[in-house]
Each structure stands twice: as C-alpha cells, then as structure tokens.
Amino acid sequence: MTVQTTEKNRDFHKLLKQNGLKVTPHRLRVLNEITHKNAAISQPDLEKIVGKEIDRVTLYRILSSFEEKGIVHKIFDLHGTATYAICTSDCTENHHHDQHVHFICSVCNSVYCLQEISLPKIPLPSHFTLHSIALNAVGLCDHCQKDAD
Ligand SMILES: [Zn+2]
Ligand SMILES: [Zn+2]
Ligand SMILES: [Zn+2]
After folding, report:
1. What is the pLDDT of residue 38?
2. CA of 91 to the centre of ligand 3 (A)
3. Quick one: which of 66, 123, 124, 142 is 20 to 30 A from 43 by CA?
4. How far is Cα 119 from Cα 116, in angstroms, rounded to an integer?
5. Nearest to 84 by CA among 97, 70, 94, 142
6. What is the number of structural domains in the chain?
7. How close is the Cα of 140 to the center of ligand 2, in Å?
8. How many CB atoms lie within 10 A of CB 58?
9. From the CA of 70, how far away is ligand 1's center (Å)?
C-alpha cells in the first residue's frame, strides 16, 4: 500500500495568506512539522518538538486556527489523542473535504492519511443529514510489519 506524501514544495507563505492568516515564524514552524513526516503528528509530539519556542497556549491557538481555516484536519489516534495532518487543497474555511480513510498502526500508533481511499456512501434514514464520516483502519504499518517479520 502506498501512502500519499505531502507536497514538499508547498508554499506555506501563500497558504497562510490565502487563508487570511498572517505569516509568522511560529505558524510556519508548525506547518513544517506537520508536513515533515508522512504520518500525522500528535499534539503532544508537536509540543515536544516546538515547546521551547512556542508555548502551549499559542500552539493550541495555531492548531485550532489551522483547523478552522481548512489547512489541517484532526484525527484521533488509538489513545484518543488529537493528531494533525495537512489538508488537501480543496478544504476551505469551516468546510473540510478530507473524506478519506485513516490508517492507525496498532504498534507505533502512527496515523496515516490514505487519500486515495475514499469513504463509502452511507445510506442514512430519511430526515438524517450527513456532515462527515470518520473511518479508521487499524493494523500494522509498513515499518512495524518489517519488524514483525
Ligand atoms: Zn481538511
Ligand atoms: Zn507502526
Ligand atoms: Zn487525513
């Protein structure tokens, strides 16, 4: 299974400006960390990495503004910890379109966006309105699979 990598050359300056956010070193730093690995990054891990430069409250505010603007989406890992992944470009303010499957590794707890796997259509009872579907696939990631062989 291939995991879609995020575009390395994504122009973060442009991304922030497009979303009406001021370009600040803190925001750029957080975006860099979120897109650094293939996997999503958890809030505690982000805190560990940027904690010396960015205090908790500021980090929290940055993440919630990114989420609100459609820049990142939140996935809860197996421990219920919030992890963040960059959105595809069609997400907009308060309208996320990250309707793809997320894969969570039961050994290392890494969360991957499987952009190429879209979610099934759910036939809802009448008078029900669908806003979003979350579907997590749980198993071994390629890295932990190798260790298990
Ligand atoms: Zn999104
Ligand atoms: Zn793993
Ligand atoms: Zn995702």
Report:
1. 87
2. 11
3. 142
4. 10
5. 70
6. 1
7. 5
8. 15
9. 5
